[in-house]
Structure formats: C-alpha cells, structure tokens
Specification:
about 400 residues, alpha/beta, Aspartate Aminotransferase, domain 1, 2 domains, 7-stranded mixed β-sheet, 4-stranded antiparallel β-sheet, 17 strands, globular, binds pyridoxal-5'-phosphate
C-alpha cells in the first residue's frame, strides 16, 4: 500500500511548474532535492503577490506597507517557533541559510567560549558548512576541531564520541542530524544528551532533517539548530537559527548595522535584545511570504506522509540500484533519509553526471561539500539521488536504466 494514490502523486507533481520542463529533449527527473528542493506554484505566487502589493522594508516604517511586511516577517518567526517547538519566538533568528547560521554561532558563541587548547567536536560526515567555520574560529582562538569518527555503515561511533568527550577539553559539539552525503539519520538526541550531561554546548545542523521530518528542539535538547528554507520547498536566501534564549542573551552581536541596535552614538552603541541583535541590515524581506506558502504546502500534505513517501522512494531506489552489478551504495545505516549515494566501478562520477543529464536526469555528483566523508570511504565523490515528495518510482526506473546504459558506454 503506497502512501499516495497515483492521482494524489499526479496532483502533487502538478503543483510544481518546473516538473513539466524538458531537459535535453527528455522530461526532467529532478533527483537533487538535497541540494535544493523545487518550489510549488503557491510559493512563486506568494512572493510575486508580495512584490506587487506589499513590498516594503520591515521594522522601519510606520506606513501601511511596512507594517504589513513586518507582520508577514514576524508572523513567520512565530510559525518557525511552532515548527521547531522552541519555547519562545525570540529564539528564532532570521539568516540567509544554514551556512550563515553556523557562522553566526561560531563567530559569537564559539569565539567567546573557546580558549587556547579547547576542542570543538564535529562529525566525520559534516557538511563543510558545519566544519570550516569552526576551524576558522578555533584557529583564531588557539583551539582545535576534532572528529567524531564515522563507522563503515555511515553512522557515527557513539562509544568513541563518549571517550572523546571524557578525555578532551570539549566545549562545543557540532553535529549534523542527517547526512547530505549518505542519508544517515543520526540519533542526534543521544549525542546531544551525552554532551549536555557534561556541560558541553551543542549545535545541530538540521539542513537535511527539518525539511523531511518532525522534530522538536526542546525534546532534542540542543542549544542551537540551523536550517535553510530552500531545501524545504521555500525560497533561497532565507534560513533560520534556533538558539536557546539564555545563550543568545549572553552572546555578543556578530554583524553591526541597522536594526540590531538600541542606541547609537560616537561615544558608544548599545545593542538590541535577541533575536534582533543578530539581524543587522535589511533582511530578504520578500522571502518570508514564500516560506509561509512553503509551510502551507508541507502542512497541507502533512510532514508524516512526506517522510513516509520519501522513505518509500528510498527503499525502492536502494532495492533497484542494488540489482546493478558494479554499483556500490555508500551508507547502509538502519535509519536513512531520502538520499542514496553510490559509486560505479570504472566510471567517474563526473562523467556519470553528464551522461545522466543527457537523459534529463538531475543528480548531484562530486563530494557533496563533505570531503572528509568522501575520504573516510575512500572515494573522491559519489553519484547522489535525493528525493522529495514529488518524485516517483518511474523517475527512479529512469535513473536505473540510465546507469545501466552508462555502464555499457563506459566499459
Ligand atoms: C545544504 C547543507 C548545508 C548548507 O546549507 P546552505 O543552505 O547552503 O547554507 C549545511 N549542512 C547540510 C547537511 C546541508 O545539506
């Protein structure tokens, strides 16, 4: 019994205008939602309508348009609070995306917290966005970043992690919830709780989890969590940082400018309370209208059903791909999101990507901004198919047929 009937799947697909595109004379099979998901018509329409009717800067004017724009913006803050189960709306900070959210934490909290010889622990599979900012700030502070080793199946070694927590001066744990490279869903609450018991701060990279499953930051217990709107059927240039209020209050500002201040004079400046202290300058104020529509879309279908459907697609893809000789799937964790990463004997991932594109199939190839993960599994890159609620079994069949043809051409 499938999660959706064929009619429901057709209706969902019909809501995404881009899915009717033709690429290289073939219908587009978009299997790259882990890089960026597509947007339904209602998101495009909401942003266009906002531009036509409401466009104005937020938090500034007393005029009608500015007030309406501010209502949309601050209304989205409430909605993200509910989405994440945060205890107050002031725990939600608007940023450009996951990368900016993590940089914000590294440059404020991290810089304040880290002293010489201190350690940041990061998973071996982290996206570069959850590794490089820590390396830069750690270097400045004379601290260092150490890895939580990954096991052969694509999970993280929890015992090794606890040993590291007990033997090193760890101040911060930075860990992904779901691997964008392999699809592993890490039992992140266990990792967070283990850090918490030892008084270590935690940041969860939720870029691949928030769009695909229900989560609750209070149940997780993390101090920070980051995600991007563009991976959740929403607009680019918008993301969110959740931070526990007590910590946000203790953190210095990051960027200075308009909107983040209380009083400014040449003898000194005082800063606004969180979250506004961390929101300098004009935000991407058109994007919240689109994100509201994206959240409507997710609610209309239901996160549980989206997750169930993506799991169905994952299982189908893994079963079909395993039938192919000379194909190796990386990552066999018991819990995986809708991401399947594989390598082909004798075929470079770059050639595979070009070949599949000729067939209208959009997959990601390369290191997926996770070079340490690639190194861990002894590859330079993989071919990655990732799923969203609009994908179908027949698109996966096309991928499988494409791979088989590709092998014939290259071998
Ligand atoms: C995409 C991604 C990021 C970076 O997100 P941006 O939107 O590019 O800032 C970070 N971590 C993971 C796991 C990702 O998949």
């Amino acid at each position: 019994m499938s999660v959706f009937s064929p009619e429901e799947i057709a209706a969902i697909r019909g809501r995404f205008p881009i899915l009717s595109r033709v690429v290289n004379d073939k219908p587009l099979a978009y299997l790259d939602s882990a890089a960026s998901s597509q947007v339904p018509e209602q998101v495009i329409e909401a942003m266009a309508t906002f531009q036509r009717t409401t466009r104005a800067n937020v938090h500034r004017g007393v005029h009608r348009l500015s007030q309406e724009a501010t209502e949309v913006h601050e209304g989205l803050r409430d909605r993200i609070q509910r989405l994440l189960g945060a205890s107050r709306r002031e725990e939600v900070i608007f940023v450009r995306g996951t990368t900016e959210a993590i940089n914000l934490v590294a440059w404020t909290f991290g810089r304040q917290k880290l002293n010489a010889l201190d350690v940041v622990l990061a998973g071996e599979l982290e996206h570069h966005a959850n590794l490089v900012p820590w390396q830069i700030v750690a270097a400045e502070r004379g601290a260092r970043v150490e890895k939580i080793p990954a096991l052969d199946d694509g999970t993280l070694d929890f015992e090794a992690y606890e040993r590291l927590l007990d033997s090193l001066p760890v101040k911060i744990v930075a860990i992904q919830h779901v691997s964008n490279a392999l699809g592993t869903i890490h039992p992140v609450e266990r990792f967070v709780q283990a850090a918490k018991r030892r008084g270590v701060a935690t940041l969860v990279d939720g870029a691949q989890s928030v769009p695909h499953m229900r989560l609750d930051v209070q149940a997780l217990g993390c101090d920070f969590l980051a995600f991007s709107a563009h991976k959740m059927y929403g607009p680019t240039g918008l993301g969110f940082l959740y931070g526990r209020y007590e910590l946000l209050e203790s953190m210095p500002p990051w960027q200075g400018g308009g909107d983040m201040i209380d009083k400014v004079s040449f003898s000194g400046t005082t800063f606004h309370e969180p979250p506004w202290r961390f929101e300098a300058g004009t935000p991407h104020y058109v994007a919240p209208s689109g994100m509201n529509a994206a959240l409507d879309f997710v609610e209309e279908i239901g996160m549980e059903r989206i997750a169930a459907r993506e799991h169905e697609l994952l299982e189908y893809a893994q079963t079909r791909l395993r039938e192919i000789e000379g194909l190796r799937i990386l990552g066999s964790a018991p819990h995986k999101a809708g991401v399947v990463s594989f390598v082909l004997e004798g075929v470079h991932h770059y050639d595979a990507g070009l070949f599949l594109d000729q067939m209208g199939i959009a997959v990601r190839t390369g290191h997926h901004c996770a070079q340490p993960a690639m190194e861990r599994y002894g590859v330079t890159g993989t071919i990655r198919a990732s799923f969203a609620v609009f994908n179908t079994e027949s698109e996966i069949d096309r991928l499988v047929a494409g791979v088989i043809r590709l092998q014939k051409v290259f071998q």
